[in-house]
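Help! Submission page says 'invalid entity' but I think these are all valid:
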Amino acid sequence: MAIKFSLIITTTTIIAIANPTTVPSTALKNSCLNCHTKQKIPSELIYRRYLMRYSTDKKMQKRILAYLKKPAPSNSIMPKQFFLKFPMKKRLDINGSILERDIKGYLDYFNIKNKLKVSNNSLSPIPK
Amino acid sequence: MLVSEKRSLFRFLTIYLSSTFLLFFSATLILYHYQKHNILDTQRDTLKSKAYQISQELRKLHEQFNPPLIYPSHPLSAIYNSNRNYIFGSFNPSKPLWEKESYIKNDNLFYFFKLEPYYLGAKYVLVSQKIEHGEIIKLQKTLLFFLLIAGLFFSLLALVLGRLFTSPMKESMSRVNRFIEDTTHELNTPISTILTNIELIETLYDCKAKKEMKRIEIASKTLSRLYDDLTYLKLNHNYHRAVEPVDMGYLLKERLLYFQSMIETKSLALKESISEDVIIDIDRNDALRLIDNLLSNAIKYNQKNGKIIIILNQLNLYISDNGIGIKEEDLDQIHERFNRANKSEGGFGIGLDIVGQVVNEYGFEFTINSIYKEGTEVTITWQ
């Protein structure tokens, strides 16, 4: 029994070290993802919209925070026409530092770097 | 080919070929750089289009949700965010040169491609590939071949032109040489006759006009030496030297006796210090021409009641006079044939040319110091 338990713990640790962001944190799940999943709002699509427009995590974090603190079409990543069809999200009643932590968790969870891989058949020698 | 003709041709060829080479080399260098630039531009354009293809791949990856997102591996590329921080890539170059759109480093061509919008958060794609040297080497070979052909063509042209330019000089020199040849030939018999008859008169008859006879003898000897010098110059090209040990002291004394009448006529004070056993390996005729010309100059260009100092030892032969001297500006050209520093005395200006030729032939050292209107010192060092 003890051996089984330690094996499970080891395997979980290895997976976590190898791919630390594949599993969202509970806080992120509770604050964001659960609701997004329920309402069928694709979180990754929104992440990529932010990524495509703002490029850096810092800028994305700033824009998401601004939107969540004051949800308005001018702060949103979505086009204005989107809000003609869908209602505006209600302001979240979450503490600022918690919100920042959750946004960081969100950005880490969807971070594109962790999903990219390069194929091994590189043809040229790598220049410095 | 005459020495002067050779020298003129050499000078012409040097100037013409070096200036032509310099011109062609500069033009080829400019052309090479221009063409190389074009080749690199073409490679850069290819790299640019590859960078565009990568940007399209990035767009597809951005739209693809299911990981893993396979990043294109060829050509080598890296993506950077708007803060120029590395995101991902098939390589990670150290210190990219952001201030340039494209650059060459370590034989690799780099190109920055800007993305808009920022697929995968990338604002910049840096692509790189090794420079293909095939075309550059081909260009180098072509230009080298062109230079070689041009060099060959211009060398031949220069040779033809050179010969064309020096031909009038060659003709003049040939005419002078032919004249000397004819003159010497015609002079030989009468000079010999005069000298033989003077000797006969002095031996067999008691001639009352001794002073006049002396003058005739001096004039005839001068003519005879001139004949010898001219013959020496004429035959010098084909002359087979019989190099043998020659007692220079004995020869010098013998020649002083020969010049005795001239020395007496000018009332010159002769001071001599001639060492015994100065044996030099030399052709006898060469030694004769060397001594005769130096003595003759010391006598001819001396003043009346002047002085001549002659020192011969194992090291050198020194002859000085306190005659008219040579101007400083004339000293450089004094060895050249037909060049006379002083036109007041007779002669063709071939004396020091002959001395120079003998000195060069045997590797002696020839130094001449002179002060105008004070005198001249000539030293022949034997080694």
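Support: the input was valid. A stray whitespace character was the problem, and the output above is from the cleaned input. Chain A has six helices and one strand.
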